[in-house]
C-alpha cells in the first residue's frame, strides 16, 4: 500500500500516526470493498442505498477545496485519499483508516488521490446515537472510560474486524430481501467495533446523554434550525445546561468556531447554495439567510469563499462546465 495512504492524525506528522494493516487478507478485503462500491455506483456521485443511512461515494478526479457541512457519520475509504480541514486541524485519511464525525461540522474538504483509472471510493454510514447507546448497554460497555472528545471529529485505524463488517454490510445490497433483518445486526457490529477501537472512548461520547458532545449537538441542531434568526447565547446556554462562557468554550473546542461564527458559516453556505441553484441575486440571498446588510454579506462571503458572490458563482459554474472540482 502506498506510503501516502497512511493515515495522519490531526496535528501530527505521519511518523506519529498508525501504520496501516497491510497483510494480504486486509488488502484483499479492501479490494473487495472497492469492487462492491464500484458495482453499486458506476459513475461519480453520492449514492443513497436501500440500507438506511448508508451512502456510497465515487469520484474519478481530485478536487478543489469544497465547503460543506459534515453530519455525524463514519466514513471508511476503500481507495483514494482525502483531507478534511476543520479550523486549524486537518484530517487526512485513506485506505486502512476511517473518519468519524460526531456533530454537524462546517468543514473544507479536498480529494487528494483520485483518477479515472483509480477513483476515490468510500462508504458513509450515518450515526444513530440511540443505537450506539443500545450497543453500549447491550455489550456492557457503560462502565468503561469515556474520553471527552475535544474536536467533533477524529481519524482512527480501521481494524480487520471493522473492515470485514463494512464489506458484509455493502454486500447485502446484492440480496435486498435480507437487508431488513441483517443490516441492523451488521450496523450494531460496526458500532461495537468502533467502541472497541483505539478511539472507542471518544466514540462513546456521541451517545451518552449529558456528555459535552451530546449537549453541543443539541445546540448545533437549534442553530441549524433557526440559522436565519437572531442568536441568543443565553437561551442556548440554558438549553445545554451550561453557563454562556462554558458553552462558548465547549462549542469552540468541538467545532473550532464560536456559536455566532458557526451560525455565520451556515448562513453563508446556504446563501451559496441558493445562488447556485435558484434564480436569486446576492441581495435576495443575503436577506433570506438572515443578513440585514447586503454589503456586510458580500464582505463576509468573500472572506470565506475568496470572491464576492457573483464572481464566485460564475467561477463555480465555469469549473462545473469544464469538469473541474
From TrEMBL:
Keywords: Transcription, Transcription regulation. InterPro entries: Homeodomain-like_sf, HTH_AraC, Tscrpt_reg_HTH_AraC_N. Residues 217-315 form the HTH araC/xylS-type domain. Gene3D superfamilies: Homeodomain-like. Signal peptide: none annotated. It comes from the Bacteria. It holds the Pfam family AraC_N. The keyword Transcription regulation applies. PANTHER family: ARAC-FAMILY TRANSCRIPTIONAL REGULATOR, TRANSCRIPTIONAL REGULATORY PROTEIN. This is AraC family transcriptional regulator.
Amino acid at each position: 500500500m502506498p506510503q501516502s495512504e497512511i493515515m495522519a492524525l490531526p496535528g501530527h506528522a505521519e511518523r506519529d500516526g498508525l501504520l496501516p494493516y497491510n497483510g494480504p487478507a486486509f488488502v484483499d478485503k479492501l479490494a473487495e470493498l472497492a469492487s462492491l462500491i464500484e458495482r453499486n455506483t458506476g459513475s461519480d456521485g453520492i449514492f443513497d442505498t436501500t440500507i438506511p443511512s448508508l451512502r456510497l461515494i465515487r469520484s474519478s478526479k481530485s478536487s478543489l477545496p469544497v465547503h460543506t457541512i459534515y453530519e455525524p457519520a463514519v466514513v471508511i475509504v476503500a481507495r483514494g485519499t482525502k483531507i478534511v480541514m476543520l479550523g486549524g486541524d486537518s484530517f487526512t485519511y485513506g485506505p486502512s483508516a476511517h473518519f468519524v464525525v460526531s456533530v454537524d461540522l462546517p468543514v473544507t474538504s479536498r480529494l487528494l488521490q483520485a483518477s479515472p483509472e483509480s477513483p476515490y471510493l468510500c462508504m458513509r454510514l450515518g450515526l444513530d446515537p440511540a443505537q450506539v447507546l443500545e450497543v453500549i448497554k447491550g455489550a456492557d460497555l457503560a462502565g468503561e472510560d469515556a474520553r471527552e472528545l475535544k474536536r467533533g471529529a477524529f481519524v482512527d485505524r480501521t481494524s480487520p474486524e471493522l473492515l470485514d463488517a463494512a464489506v458484509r454490510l455493502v454486500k447485502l445490497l446484492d440480496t435486498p430481501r435480507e437487508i431488513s433483518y441483517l443490516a441492523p445486526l451488521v450496523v450494531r457490529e460496526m458500532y461495537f467495533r468502533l467502541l472497541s477501537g483505539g478511539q472507542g472512548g471518544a466514540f462513546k461520547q456521541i451517545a451518552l446523554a449529558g456528555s459535552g458532545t451530546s449537549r453541543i449537538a443539541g445546540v448545533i441542531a437549534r442553530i441549524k434550525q433557526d440559522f436565519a434568526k437572531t442568536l441568543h447565547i443565553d437561551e442556548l446556554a440554558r438549553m445545554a445546561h451550561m453557563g454562556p462562557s462554558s458553552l462558548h468554550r465547549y462549542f469552540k473546542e468541538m467545532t473550532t468556531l464560536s456559536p455566532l461564527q458557526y451560525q455565520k458559516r451556515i448562513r453563508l453556505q446556504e446563501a451559496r447554495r441558493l445562488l447556485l441553484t435558484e434564480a436569486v441575486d446576492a441581495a435576495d440571498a443575503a436577506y433570506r439567510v438572515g443578513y440585514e446588510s447586503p454589503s456586510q454579506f458580500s464582505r463576509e462571503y468573500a472572506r470565506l469563499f475568496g470572491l464576492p458572490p457573483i464572481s464566485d458563482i460564475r467561477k463555480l459554474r465555469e469549473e462545473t462546465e469544464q469538469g473541474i472540482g
